[in-house]
Write a structure and sequence with these properties.
about 100 residues, alpha+beta, Glutaredoxin, 4 strands
Length: about 100
């Protein structure tokens, strides 16, 4: 495995109490699988995709974060994920999907 150039975190919204939050209820597990497969299909070998526990931005779920950019994306679905991956390929950020500061 090569050292990743980008790390994508998909909120799995799991909590220590065992409760499942908004992102999980909005099928973030399938979103994670989609992003992994799409990154592989595009030949983005430097992209690592991981699930997280709750990121506490439930109003914006499903939430995806991309590092090293530090970009936090809201309401991510497959179409938005494609735009995020396009931005990674182009060395940019998908501005229109960022969580407002």
């Amino acid at each position: 495995m090569i050292k990743p150039t980008h790390h994508i975190f998909v909120c799995g919204s799991f909590r220590p109490t065992g409760a499942q939050g908004t992102c999980h209820k909005k099928d973030s597990a399938a979103l994670l699988q989609y992003i992994e497969q799409e990154a592989a299909d595009r030949g983005l070998d430097g992209v690592m995709v991981s699930s997280t526990s709750c990121m506490k931005f439930c109003d914006h779920g499903p939430v995806v974060i991309v590092y090293p950019e530090g970009a936090w994306y809201s309401h991510v679905n497959e179409a938005v994920a494609d735009e995020i991956l396009d931005a990674i390929e182009n060395g940019t950020v998908a501005q229109e999907h960022l969580i407002p500061a």
